[in-house]
Design a protein that fits this description.
The protein has 617 residues and is of the alpha/beta class. Helices cover 47% and strands 11% of the residues. Helix 3 packs across helix 9 and helix 8 runs antiparallel to helix 10.
């Protein structure tokens, strides 16, 4: 038993005893909870009545236990119902945003404008006093609190790489909400639960104290405090017992939920994860569609532009990928490489949009599909099956609460109906195929239990699980040491040999990687394509000053002396009016500063965006 788990023993044992006591009240050897003994009213504790007798001679211990039954039922019941409703509203609003957010989270927040006690009084006044009206009142009161907490947590989690990776697999949004986002928002949800239970017990006691809660003769701690208040001078202990029970239960419950937050936090939980969320269905296998032989480009991007609000980030990008070809997308950070890749999978952030151009992808059936015109459902049908993506940081892209085998299996189940036995075999074969040692054991491991290289291999296994026709690799070797980088590049080379029809876009800033893996290279700068062509020709004779400067700035470039590129990539808010590279270019002329160069073709398979490309050596 871990140190964190041992912290649950004390509060968990106390809560278990309290719950067991109130649940077993009907079978415990207690005095009649309604039996009155007027001659012995206010009697002190005795062997027959351990906590004494109240103002009607009733046994205090029996009423305390039965009162806890009512108070806990109302508080926990309303907290659970409010949690179910509020969590649903928060998840939907936080994930889908827009109109869904307005109809769920924002609509529920109207309730927060009303004072809590007055709202509860209003509901009780309309429905009448009693247990269920009180539960309804407290549910209405606390639902917005859950919705806001879950909404905020969902907003934080939905932008993380492992959620984006789930979308890239083509996983259905509701499955992402239940399997990926919900386990990651559980810790703050538990904290909110403890606060709600505590608050609900206080409000229930307050309303019962006012005579608007639990209806006598049913006992509750609030009613006991109310009746004891008038006899404080005669029998002060009558006020002590229900007050201690109320305060002690609230404090213990808060402590338990606080400890549970640490134990169930997905980032530290290593002994089971969110494995209670594991639906399994056996369905008939889907017949595979045979790929159509064609000489047409697999993906043809023309004049693609991407903007955030009115700020243009990517302008007039053109890119062609043919079956079996690897195209390297190269440039400094901020050049638009990753945005271009994300646009091909429909994974751009909500604030970004495609403002122009086309990206025609040819499906397995030979049908041309313009990716810029697809909605989320259209992308979901392609992600993971036809187009897949390997993300830069595997540690962030893999879901921390699911085992590796489950995540690879999810990618397969998103597009194929397969039984459990066949799925397990397929997952282990995939892990073995990408070079993970002891795949049977590693399939049951969590991402944090793997090394960096093994996590990246697992990420690749997820990406190629359905044999995609187009693979987009977003700097998959950046965070790895040179030895592991070489192994990952060898893995990509082997995958390319084994699936000769698969096209690949390899996003990187490492020219040595480009020389090793790519057939063609596309160089981007400040959101534009400035040069493209076969790798060997571009490296041997670059036709753009930026490409020349990139080659001269790396050891593998062959220059006698390394030369740093002066200046920095311009901000999207302050782009030069002419050539975007002109402020940093040694070849720049006044014409370059005032006018943007058009694309020129030095040869039939080369392209450059420079006025002086003939002078670049």
């Amino acid at each position: 038993m871990s140190r964190t788990t041992r912290k649950l023993l004390l509060p968990g044992t106390i809560i278990a005893l309290i719950v067991a006591t109130v649940l077993l009240a009907p079978v415990l050897p207690l005095q009649d909870v309604r039996g009155m003994d007027i001659p012995h009213r206010f009697a002190p504790p005795s062997t027959e009545h351990w906590l004494g007798q109240d103002d009607f001679g009733r046994d205090v211990l029996a009423r305390l236990i039965w009162g806890g039954r009512a108070s806990l039922f109302i508080a926990v019941g309303s907290a659970l119902i409010a949690a179910a409703i509020g969590t649903t509203l928060g998840l939907l609003g936080g994930y889908f945003r827009g109109v869904v957010e307005l109809l769920t989270v924002r609509a529920s927040e109207i309730i927060l404008c009303l004072p809590p006690l007055l709202l509860a009084l209003l509901v009780v006044a309309i429905l009448g006093a009693g247990t269920w009206p009180l539960i309804i009142a407290l549910t209405i009161l606390y639902t917005p609190n859950y919705a806001r907490v879950v909404y905020a947590a969902t907003q934080q989690v939905r932008g993380l790489d492992f959620v984006t990776a789930q979308r890239a697999m083509g996983t259905h949004p509701l499955r992402i909400l239940v399997r990926t986002i919900l386990p990651n928002v559980l810790p703050p949800l538990l904290v909110q639960m403890s606060l709600v239970v505590a608050s609900a017990m206080v409000i229930e006691s307050g309303l019962s104290f006012l005579g608007l809660g639990v209806v006598p003769p049913t006992p509750s701690w609030g009613l006991m405090i109310r009746s004891a208040r008038g006899a404080m001078e005669v029998a002060p202990l009558l006020l002590v017992w229900p007050s201690l029970a109320l305060a002690g239960t609230i404090l213990t419950f808060n402590l338990l939920c606080d400890r549970l937050q640490s134990v169930l936090d997905p980032r530290s939980f290593t002994a089971g994860g969110a494995l209670w969320l594991r639906p399994r269905q056996k369905q008939k296998a889907k017949k595979p569609v045979k790929a159509l032989e064609t000489d047409a480009p697999l993906l043809e991007i023309r004049d693609l532009s991407i903007a955030a609000h009115n700020l243009e980030l990517v302008r007039r990008v053109g890119l062609t990928v043919r079956p079996g070809e690897t195209v390297a997308l190269v440039g400094e950070s901020g050049s638009g490489k990753t945005l271009t890749g994300l646009a091909m999978t429909g994974l751009l952030a909500d604030t970004l949009r495609i403002t122009g151009g086309s990206a025609v992808y040819r499906s397995r059936s030979g049908e041309p599909i313009d990716l810029t015109g697809l909605d989320e459902d259209g992308f979901r049908a392609l992600r993971g099956e036809d187009i897949s993506m390997v993300f830069q940081d595997a540690a962030a892209a893999l879901n921390p609460v699911l085992r590796i085998g489950e995540q690879v299996g999810e990618a397969i189940r998103a597009h194929h109906h397969i039984d459990d036995a066949a799925l397990k075999t397929r997952v282990i074969d995939l892990l073995r195929h990408v070079g993970i040692p002891d795949p049977e054991t590693r399939a049951s491991a969590y991402p944090h239990e793997l090394s960096g290289g093994q996590r990246q291999r697992a990420m690749i296994a997820v990406a190629v699980a359905n044999n995609p026709r187009l693979l987009i690799a977003d700097e998959p070797t950046t965070a790895l040491d040179p030895t592991i980088q070489a192994q990952i590049l060898q893995l990509f080379a082997r995958l390319k040999e084994e699936t000769p029809e698969m096209g690949m876009i390899f996003v990187t800033h490492d020219l040595a990687v480009v020389a090793e893996i790519a057939d063609r290279v596309t160089v981007m700068y400040a959101g534009e394509v400035v040069e493209e062509g076969p790798v060997a020709e571009v490296f041997a004779a670059p036709k753009h000053p930026y490409t020349q400067a990139l080659i001269a700035s790396v050891p593998e470039g062959g220059s006698e002396r390394l030369v740093a590129i002066p200046g920095a990539v311009p901000s999207p808010r302050a782009m030069p009016t002419g050539c975007r590279f002109a402020p940093r270019c040694s070849y720049a002329l006044p014409n370059c500063i005032d006018h943007a160069p058009q694309a020129a073709e030095p040869t039939s398979d080369r392209l450059t965006r420079c006025f002086r490309w003939e002078d670049v050596s």
